[in-house]
Amino acid sequence: MKLYTKISSGKFKGKRLELPSLSTTRSTKSIVKESFFNVIRDEIYSLTFIEGFGGSGVMASEAVSNGAREAIAIEKDRAAFKITQSNLSSLQSSNLKAINGDSFALLPDLVNSQNNGKVLLYLDPPFDIRAGFDDIYEKLVNLISQLKKEKIYMIVFEHNSDFKFGDEISAFKLVKFKKFGATSLSYFQ
């Protein structure tokens, strides 16, 4: 049985997107997605939105729907990537791109080579699902240290509420934190 989510705002509002298997991806809850876009909607217009750990590509799709200059979804799982690709192409927007690969390997070059303004980086790893993700937050902090600060507008982590980022992201400052039960959003600028 196929599962679906909908784009909740912007020019693609109501468009249905297929979800990949929930055994390999973890879909962003609607309340989290809506809260995030309510916070950044007025700031997204001149930004490149990059969704690491893209899953269905719903966050990238929602970003372009709300006016992002362009959006990129990166997904490692091949079956999930095929769904991401299908979802993005169904929107018929030249501003959306899907990349099949490892976010940890691809993001430094992708972010650091941006020449079209700044990046809003949304990182939502499948922290409760995939094996080998026990040290995911340490890996994310290490990843952030490889990025050129001048290329970043904002980094937003969707993470397990039990985890709190400390001073380990020294180049960026925590500017907002919002908890949604077991899931939280931490915004760094």
What does this structure look like?
The protein is of the alpha/beta class and 189 residues long. Helices cover 28% and strands 27% of the residues. It contains five helices and nine strands; from the N terminus they run E-E-H-E-H-E-H-E-H-E-H-E-E-E. It has helices at residues 30-40, 58-65, 78-90, 103-112, 136-145, and strands at residues 3-6, 16-19, 48-52, 70-75, 96-100, 119-123, 152-160, 174-180, 183-188. The strands form two sheets. Strands 5-4-3-6-7-9-8 form a seven-stranded mixed β-sheet, sandwiched between helices. Strands 1-2 form a two-stranded antiparallel ribbon. The termini are far apart. The mean pLDDT is 89.
SSE blueprint:
Blueprint: E1 3-6, E2 16-19, H1 30-40, E3 48-52, H2 58-65, E4 70-75, H3 78-90, E5 96-100, H4 103-112, E6 119-123, H5 136-145, E7 152-160, E8 174-180, E9 183-188
Parallel strand pairs: 3-4, 3-6, 4-5, 6-7
Antiparallel strand pairs: 1-2, 7-9, 8-9
Q: Main sheet: which strands, in order across? A: 5-4-3-6-7-9-8
- How far apart lie the N and C ends? 40 Å
Mean pLDDT: 89
Strand segment tally: 9
Structural class of the helix and strand makeup?
alpha/beta
Characterize the biggest β-sheet: 7 strands, mixed
- Runs with pLDDT <50, length 5+? none
Fraction of residues in helices? 25-40%
What radius of gyration results from the CA coordinates?
A: 15 Å
User: How many helices?
Assistant: 5
What form results from the Cα inertia axes?
globular
Strand content: 25-35%
Order of helices and strands: EEHEHEHEHEHEEE
What's this entry about, in short?
The chain is α/β, with parallel strands linked by helices. It contains five helices and nine strands.
